[in-house]
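Worked example
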Amino acid sequence: MMEETATVDIKSINEKIEKESAFVDLLMREINKVIVGQKHMVERLLIGLLGQGHILLEGVPGLAKTLAINTLSQAVDGSFSRIQFTPDLLPADVTGTLIYNMKLNDFSIKKGPIFANFVLADEINRAPAKVQSALLEAMQEKQVTIGDETFKLDKPFLVMATMNPVEQEGTYPLPEAQVDRFMLKTVIDYPKIADEQLIMRANLKGAWEKVSSVVSVEQILKAQEVVREVYMDEKIEKYILDIIFATRYPEKYKLEDLKPLISFGASPRGSINLATAAKCYAFIKRRGYVIPEDVRAVVYDVLRHRIGITYEAEAENVTSVDIINKIVNEIEVP
């Protein structure tokens, strides 16, 4: 009898999720009017948006990172702001500041660009640590204090920070503990040749299709709540925990050869984010339950920046992705 109610339950969850996630196809279609290819990046943006997380994007310039988040903000009818990080930026340039008004003989508050639904932090590693931490604090607390007043940030709130892997000169790398605040770290690659041909043609014509707002902010906020209802079996929870624990204690999972290569494993934030991202991925695929493939689809983006590698690993040219690869191939799939 117990089993019967469980299946009925999943069936009703599945129907609900299928109904609630109908807007995903609309949103994708709208974004694809402007963004050619880069499906991986667009999907990760949606996972961040639905999972109330933030994204760190790494890729060379010109891969439509700015265009992607701007297009998403237009399709969702949300506000968008872009902060170009430079070495002379101050925390107040991000969060806002108090301005003295001589007429009123008083201070008025000028809010910074962080007060938007979609914030692009361009080249986050160009700005000093103070500015980075001001942004990361706002991301974590979802609020900003200016003077003695605290302001809640608009919902939904999605920060997409970009990093340029090419130049390391004059940059301030993000500390490991701060990188952990990002739900996903996505590495984007060059488009395929056929896609690039379409991009080139559209640019030369200067004829981009207009993006319409197909989803309301309210729908996104509702979807963020509904995503939590996606069913996750205990076996899947155990699978996620095995992957996370294998990054901390590889020897317990017959992966002794990884022990000297890992300096630290994923934190509990890693397991929470992996479970959340897997639920969001299932939602995007319009399914009411999580399958192991959902976990495997997002595991690289969730764990890439959460595994510390040792000097020995660097000497052997082993990256965190290689380590995740070995772990995912070794851990038994439920």
Summary: Residues 1-6 have pLDDT under 50 and may be disordered. The two ends are 24 Å apart (CA to CA). Residues 230-330 form a domain with the Helicase, Ruva Protein; domain 3 fold (CATH 1.10.8.80). The chain has two domains: 38-203+215-221, 230-330.
